[in-house]
C-alpha cells in the first residue's frame, strides 16, 4: 500500500506541477486562480465566474481571448474553436457549437476532476492517518525489537557464563574424580605398603616372640607353679580324666558328636519356629482368602450379567478355589504347585477386590462431592458451637487445675524437687495420714463431748422453759386472783398495776388474754437475743446438707473456744447455762472470719485441710 | 531407690557374685566379701600385693584376684576360708586372667601374648594354648560354658580355634578372611560366632560352630569400619556399630542387613521423645504457709539438682568435632546394649558424647533420645526389665524406662558415679543392686531399690 502510495504521490504532484507550469507560462494563471477559487467556495461561483470572465475577456480583446483559448484548448487536445478555414487568407470563424461542446466537456472534466480531487483528498487523509498509525507501529516494533535484542544479548551472556561455569564445574569434577582416583590409588598403595610392613614387622615380632618363648619357657622356670592347699572336685562331680593317646580319638569323636548335636538342636529349633511362623501365615492367608470369597460372592451376579470376560473367568476361578478350599489337608502340603495355586488365586482375588474398592471409592467420592456443600455449612456451625463449648470447658478445667496447683503448691511449698521427693512423698503421706488420723479421732471425741454438752444444754433450756411456763401459769392464776380481788376490793388495784409494769415493761396491760403469748416467748427472746440464733441453728441442723461441715466448724470452734477462753473475752464470762450456749453459737459464726484473719490461720487451715482429707479417708 | 552407706574401694574393683548373694570389693591388697543383702562383711582375704583384677567363678564359690605386677593369681574359696591357691606365672609375666565357665580352670595370658596357660583346680594338669592374638576381644566362651573360641595369629594370618571346655581339646581350627581380626563373639545360643576385622576395614564374618563360614557383611570400603558389636539376647539380631555413626542390624536367617540406624545431630521427628537433662535452680518459696515444715529437712539437699525435660522437636544435639590428626577419633558408635527382652537397643555415638539413643527393635525406629549435661560414661540395662541406667561421672544415676526418665542423686559428698552394676540372679523376690563408685581410692556405695 505504501508503495502504491509513494508511486501515486509524485504522479499527482507532477501533474499539478505540470498544470501550474503550464499556466505560469501564460503568465496569467487564470485557470489556477479559478481552480483555487473553486476549491475555496463553490457556491458563490457564478458571480465570481462572471466577474472573472469579464476581467479576462473584455469587449476589446475578444478575438485575442478566443484565439488564446483556442490555442490552449488545441494543446489540450480539444477540437479547435474555429471553423475549418477554407483558405489561409480568410479569417477563421468561431464555431459556436464547438465552443459549447468544449465548454461542456470542460465542465464535465472539471466536475470529474473535482470528484477525483475529493477522492484523492479523502484518500490522502486516510493514508495519512494510516501512515501515522503505521509509523507508530513501526516505532513500537522497533522499540520491541530493541528490547528483545537487548534481552537476547543478556541471555546469550548468561548462557555463555553458565556454559563457562559448567565447563569449570566439569573441569572441577574431573579434577575431583582424578583426585579421588589418585587418593584411592594412594590409599590402596598405602594399604598394600602398610600390609607389607605389617607383615614384615609381624614376622620380626613373631621371631622375637618365638625367641622369647624359648628363652622363657625352655629354661626350667621354677617359679611357674601353682600352690594349692588341696585340689577341689569338679563342678559336675566327675573326676578329672587323664588324656592318653588311645582315648584321644574317642574324645575327639565324642566332642564332634556333641557339637553336631548342638548344631542340630539349634537348626531343629529354628526350623520349628519357621514352621510355626509358616503355619500361622498360612492360617492368616486362608482366612483372608475365605473372607475375600465371602466378600466377593454377593457381587458375583453382577459381573456375570455384564458378561465381562476377564472378571468372569476370575470368578469361576474363585469358585474352583472355593471348592478346593474345602480340602483342608491341602494346606499342609508345602509343595510348590500348591503354593503357586494359592498365590495365584490370592492374587486374582486381590485384583478383584482392589478394583471393587476403587470403584467404591469413586462412588463415595462422587457422593461426597455432591453432598458436601450443604453438609459442610451445618457442620461448620455445629463445629463452631462445639468448639466454643469445648473452649469454655477447657477454660474451666484450666482454672480448676490452677486452683488445684495452688493448693498443692501451698501444701508442698518447701519440697520442690519432684524427682527426689516423689520417691519420698509416699512415706510423707503415710506419716501425715497417721497424724491426721490421730487428730481426727481427737476431734471426734471432742465433737462427741460437745454434742453431749449441747444435749444437756437443750435439756436444761427445755426444763427452764417448762419452769417458766409453770411460773407464768402460777402468775396468771395469781393475777386472776388479784383481779378477782380487785373487782371485789378496789383499793388494791393500784398496787396490782405497779406489779404488772415491773414484770413486763411494755407489754399490753389492758388485755391480759393476749398477754400470755408474748410472755411465753419472752424467756427465749429476752435475755440477749442470741438464743434465737441458737434455735435457728439447731433447727437448721437436721436440714443442713452436710453434717460434716457443721462438725468441722464445730470442731474448729472447739479449738478456738479453748484458746479464746484463755484470752477471756467478756462474752464468755456469762455464768448461766443459756448464756454459755449462746456464746458458743456465736463463736461458731465468728470462727469463719476468724480463720481467714490469719491470726490462727496456720492452724485453722491445717484443721480445715485435715478435715478435707479425713473426709476422703473412710 | 535406697542407698547404702559408702564403702572404700580401690581401682574400681567391685563385683557381685553371679548368684547375687555376695559382693566382693577390693581395698588395696585386701579383698572384702560382703553379704549382698545385709552388706555385712562375710570374709576378708589378704593378698600379697595390690589387687588389679577380681573375678568370681561362675558358681560363686571362688574368687580370683590377679596381681599383674607380680605375675600372680590368688584364688580364694568362699566356703572354706582357709583354702588358698596361688598361681605364679614366673618370668613369663601376666597380662590377663579369667575363669573358665566351669569355675575350676583359670586361663592366664602371659605377657606379649606368648601363650595362654590353663590351670586346673581339680587336677595338677596344665594346658598351654599357643599363639593367642592380642586383640580387643580374643577369648569368648559360649553362654552354656561348653566351648571356647580363641583368636589366634600365626604366620601373619588370623585363625580361630574352638576348644571344648571340658577337656580343653581342639574342636575346630580355621583361618578367618580378615586383615587383622579385632574381636570375636559368640551368639547367645552358642551356635554362631561373629568375628570382625580391625577398624581399618569394615568386615564382619559369621561362622557356625563347626567352622563353616555362614556369611560375610561389608557395608562400605575405604573408611574406618566397625567400632562395636552386640548380639541381641535372643540371638536374632546382630548390631554392628561403625565409625560412620551408624548401627546396622543383621538378621539371623539371611545375615543381611535389616535396617540402618543413623545418629543425626538433629532430631526432627515429633514422634521421638527427647529427654533433656536440665539443672534446677534452688526452689523458690512460693507461699507464706510452710506446710509441713519438717519436710524440707528430710529431702535430700544437694548443690545442683537436675531433672529431665521433654524437649520439643526439632532438637539439635551437641556434637564434638573430631580431631582428624589424632588416633582413635571420637566418632562412631562406641557403645551398644540390647535390653534383656531384645526389645530395645541403647547406643552412644562418640561424636555426640552426651546423648544416649534408645531404639525400638520391634518397630525398628528411634524411640527416645536422652541428652545429659555431661558425657555418658556407661550404661547398662536392668537384667529383669526394660530399664536403662546411665552414668556420666557425676553424682547422679539416670534411669530410663519406656514410661519415662529420672535422675537420682546418689547421697554422699564428692561422689562420682563411674560405674553402675546390676545383678539379679538371686532367688526369691526381684532384687537388683546398683553400685556406683568413686574413682581412685574412694568409697563405694551400693543401693537396692525395692
Structure description:
The complex is a heterodimer of chains A (618) and B (450). Chain A is mainly alpha-helical. Helix content of chain A is 81%, strand content 1%. Chain A has 17 helices and one strand. Chain A has helices at 2-26, 30-40, 45-56, 62-75, 96-218, 245-296, 301-306, 309-325, 336-370, 373-411, 418-488, 493-503, 512-525, 530-543, 547-567, 577-597, 601-616; one strand spanning 225-228. In chain A, helix 11 packs across helix 17 (601-616). By secondary structure, chain B is an all-beta fold. Helix content of chain B is 1%, strand content 48%. Chain B has one helix at 295-298, and strands spanning 3-9, 14-16, 22-27, 30-35, 41-46, 53-56, 62-67, 72-77, 84-88, 96-99, 105-109, 115-120, 126-130, 139-141, 147-154, 157-164, 169-175, 181-186, 192-197, 204-208, 213-217, 226-231, 237-242, 246-251, 257-262, 266-267, 273-280, 305-311, 315-316, 333-338, 344-349, 355-360, 365-371, 378-381, 388-391, 396-401, 404-409, 434-437, 442-447. In chain B, the strands form ten sheets. Chain B has a six-stranded mixed beta sheet with strand order 28-27-33-32-31-30, with no helix packed on it. In chain B, strands 2-3-4-5 form a four-stranded antiparallel beta sheet, with no helix packed on it. In chain B, strands 6-7-8-9 form a four-stranded antiparallel beta sheet, with no helix packed on it. In chain B, strand 3 (22-27) and strand 4 form a beta hairpin. Mean pLDDT of chain B is 81; it is low at 285-303 and 423-450. The chains are: A mainly alpha (618), B mainly beta (450). The interface between A and B is large, with 67 and 71 residues.
Amino acid at each position: 500500500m505504501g508503495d502504491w502510495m509513494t508511486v501515486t504521490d509524485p504522479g499527482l504532484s507532477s501533474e499539478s506541477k505540470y498544470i501550474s507550469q503550464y499556466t505560469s507560462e501564460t503568465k496569467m494563471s487564470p485557470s489556477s486562480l479559478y481552480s483555487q477559487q473553486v476549491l475555496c467556495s463553490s457556491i458563490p461561483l457564478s458571480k465570481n465566474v462572471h466577474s472573472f470572465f469579464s476581467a479576462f475577456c473584455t469587449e476589446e480583446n475578444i478575438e485575442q481571448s478566443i484565439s488564446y483559448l483556442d490555442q490552449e484548448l488545441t494543446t489540450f487536445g480539444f477540437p479547435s474553436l474555429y471553423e475549418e478555414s477554407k483558405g489561409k487568407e480568410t479569417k477563421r470563424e468561431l464555431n459556436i457549437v464547438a465552443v459549447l461542446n468544449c465548454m461542456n466537456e470542460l465542465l464535465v472534466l472539471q466536475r470529474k476532476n473535482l470528484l477525483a480531487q475529493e477522492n484523492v483528498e479523502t484518500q490522502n487523509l486516510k493514508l495519512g492517518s494510516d501512515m501515522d498509525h503505521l509509523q507508530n507501529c513501526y516505532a513500537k516494533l522497533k522499540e520491541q525489537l530493541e528490547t528483545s535484542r537487548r534481552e537476547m544479548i543478556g541471555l546469550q551472556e548468561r548462557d555463555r557464563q553458565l556454559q563457562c561455569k559448567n565447563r569449570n564445574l566439569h573441569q572441577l569434577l574431573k579434577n575431583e574424580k582424578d583426585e579421588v582416583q589418585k587418593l584411592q590409588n594412594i590409599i590402596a598403595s598405602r594399604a598394600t605398603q602398610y600390609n607389607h610392613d605389617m607383615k614384615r614387622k609381624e614376622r620380626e615380632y613373631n621371631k622375637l616372640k618365638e625367641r622369647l618363648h624359648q628363652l622363657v619357657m625352655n629354661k626350667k622356670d621354677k617359679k611357674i607353679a601353682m600352690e594349692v592347699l588341696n585340689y577341689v572336685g569338679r563342678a559336675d562331680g566327675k573326676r578329672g580324666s587323664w588324656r592318653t593317646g588311645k582315648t584321644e580319638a574317642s574324645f575327639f569323636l565324642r566332642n564332634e558328636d556333641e557339637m553336631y548335636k548342638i548344631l542340630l538342636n539349634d537348626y531343629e529349633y529354628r526350623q520349628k519356629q519357621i514352621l510355626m511362623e509358616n503355619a500361622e501365615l498360612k492360617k492368616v492367608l486362608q482366612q483372608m482368602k475365605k473372607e475375600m470369597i465371602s466378600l466377593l460372592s454377593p457381587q458375583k451376579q453382577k459381573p456375570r450379567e455384564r458378561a465381562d470376560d476377564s472378571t468372569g473367568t476370575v470368578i469361576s476361578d474363585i469358585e474352583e478355589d472355593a471348592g478346593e478350599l474345602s480340602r483342608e489337608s491341602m494346606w499342609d502340603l508345602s509343595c510348590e504347585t500348591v503354593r503357586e495355586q494359592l498365590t495365584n488365586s490370592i492374587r486374582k482375588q486381590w485384583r478383584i477386590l482392589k478394583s471393587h474398592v476403587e470403584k467404591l471409592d469413586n462412588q463415595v467420592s462422587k457422593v461426597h462431592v455432591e453432598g458436601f456443600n450443604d453438609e459442610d455449612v451445618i457442620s461448620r456451625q455445629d463445629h463452631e458451637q462445639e468448639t466454643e463449648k469445648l473452649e469454655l470447658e477447657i477454660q474451666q478445667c484450666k482454672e480448676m487445675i490452677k486452683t488445684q496447683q495452688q493448693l498443692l503448691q501451698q501444701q508442698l511449698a518447701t519440697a520442690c524437687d519432684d524427682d527426689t521427693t516423689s520417691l519420698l512423698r509416699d512415706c510423707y503421706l503415710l506419716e501425715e495420714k497417721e497424724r491426721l488420723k490421730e487428730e481426727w479421732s481427737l476431734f471426734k471425741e471432742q465433737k462427741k463431748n460437745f454434742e453431749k454438752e449441747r444435749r444437756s444444754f437443750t435439756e436444761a433450756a427445755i426444763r427452764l422453759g417448762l419452769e417458766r411456763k409453770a411460773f407464768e401459769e402460777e402468775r396468771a392464776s395469781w393475777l386472776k386472783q388479784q383481779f378477782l380481788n380487785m373487782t371485789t376490793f378496789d383499793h388494791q388495784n393500784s398496787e396490782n398495776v405497779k406489779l404488772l409494769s415491773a414484770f413486763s415493761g411494755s407489754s399490753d396491760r389492758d388485755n391480759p388474754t393476749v398477754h400470755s403469748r408474748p410472755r411465753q416467748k419472752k424467756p427465749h427472746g429476752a435475755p440477749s437475743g442470741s438464743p434465737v440464733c441458737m434455735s435457728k441453728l439447731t433447727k437448721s441442723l437436721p436440714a443442713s446438707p452436710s453434717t460434716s461441715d457443721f462438725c468441722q466448724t464445730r470442731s474448729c470452734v472447739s479449738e478456738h473456744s479453748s484458746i479464746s477462753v484463755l484470752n477471756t473475752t467478756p462474752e464468755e464470762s456469762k455464768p448461766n447455762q443459756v448464756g454459755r450456749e449462746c456464746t458458743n453459737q456465736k463463736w461458731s459464726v465468728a470462727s469463719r472470719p476468724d480463720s481467714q484473719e490469719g491470726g490462727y490461720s496456720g492452724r485453722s487451715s491445717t484443721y480445715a485441710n485435715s478435715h478435707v482429707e479425713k473426709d476422703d479417708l473412710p | 531407690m535406697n542407698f547404702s552407706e559408702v564403702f572404700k574401694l580401690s581401682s574400681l574393683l567391685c563385683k557381685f557374685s553371679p548368684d547375687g548373694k555376695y559382693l566382693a570389693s577390693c581395698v588395696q591388697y585386701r579383698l572384702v566379701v560382703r553379704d549382698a543383702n545385709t552388706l555385712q562383711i562375710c570374709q576378708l582375704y589378704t593378698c600379697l600385693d595390690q589387687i588389679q583384677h577380681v573375678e568370681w567363678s561362675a558358681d560363686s564359690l571362688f574368687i580370683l584376684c590377679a596381681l599383674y605386677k607380680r605375675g600372680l593369681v590368688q584364688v580364694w574359696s568362699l566356703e572354706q576360708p582357709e583354702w588358698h591357691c596361688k598361681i605364679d606365672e614366673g618370668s613369663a609375666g601376666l597380662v590377663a586372667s579369667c575363669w573358665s565357665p566351669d569355675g575350676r580352670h583359670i586361663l592366664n595370658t602371659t605377657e606379649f601374648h606368648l601363650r595362654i596357660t590353663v590351670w586346673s583346680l581339680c587336677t595338677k594338669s596344665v594346658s598351654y594354648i599357643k599363639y593367642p592374638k592380642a586383640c580387643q576381644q580374643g577369648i569368648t566362651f559360649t553362654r552354656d560354658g561348653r566351648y571356647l573360641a580363641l583368636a589366634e595369629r600365626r604366620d601373619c594370618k588370623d585363625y580361630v580355634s574352638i576348644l571344648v571346655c571340658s577337656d580343653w581339646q581342639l574342636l575346630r581350627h580355621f583361618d578367618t578372611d580378615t586383615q587383622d581380626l579385632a574381636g570375636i563373639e559368640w551368639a547367645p545360643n552358642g551356635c554362631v560366632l561373629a568375628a570382625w576385622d580391625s577398624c581399618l576395614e569394615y568386615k564382619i564374618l559369621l561362622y557356625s560352630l563347626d567352622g563353616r563360614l555362614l556369611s560375610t557383611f561389608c557395608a562400605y570400603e575405604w573408611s574406618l569400619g566397625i567400632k562395636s558389636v552386640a548380639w541381641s539376647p535372643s540371638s536374632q539380631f546382630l548390631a554392628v556399630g561403625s565409625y560412620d555413626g551408624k548401627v546396622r542390624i543383621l538378621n539371623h536367617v539371611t545375615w543381611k542387613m535389616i535396617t540402618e540406624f543413623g545418629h543425626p545431630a538433629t532430631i526432627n521427628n515429633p514422634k521421638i521423645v527427647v529427654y533433656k537433662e536440665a539443672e534446677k535452680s534452688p526452689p523458690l518459696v512460693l507461699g507464706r504457709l510452710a506446710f509441713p515444715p519438717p519436710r524440707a529437712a528430710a529431702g535430700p539437699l544437694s548443690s545442683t539438682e537436675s531433672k529431665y525435660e521433654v524437649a520439643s522437636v526439632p532438637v539439635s544435639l551437641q556434637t564434638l568435632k573430631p580431631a582428624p590428626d589424632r588416633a582413635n577419633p571420637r566418632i562412631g558408635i562406641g557403645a551398644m546394649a540390647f535390653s534383656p527382652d531384645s526389645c530395645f537397643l541403647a547406643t552412644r555415638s562418640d561424636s555426640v558424647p552426651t546423648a544416649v539413643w534408645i531404639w525400638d527393635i520391634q518397630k525398628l525406629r528411634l524411640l527416645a533420645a536422652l541428652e545429659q549435661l555431661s558425657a555418658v560414661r556407661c550404661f547398662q540395662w536392668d537384667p529383669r526389665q526394660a530399664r536403662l541406667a546411665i552414668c556420666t561421672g557425676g553424682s547422679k544415676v539416670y534411669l530410663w524406662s519406656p514410661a519415662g526418665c529420672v535422675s537420682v542423686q546418689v547421697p554422699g559428698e564428692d561422689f562420682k558415679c563411674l560405674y553402675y552394676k546390676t545383678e539379679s540372679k538371686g532367688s526369691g523376690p526381684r532384687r537388683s543392686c546398683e553400685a556406683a563408685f568413686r574413682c581412685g581410692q574412694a568409697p563405694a556405695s551400693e543401693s537396692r531399690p525395692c
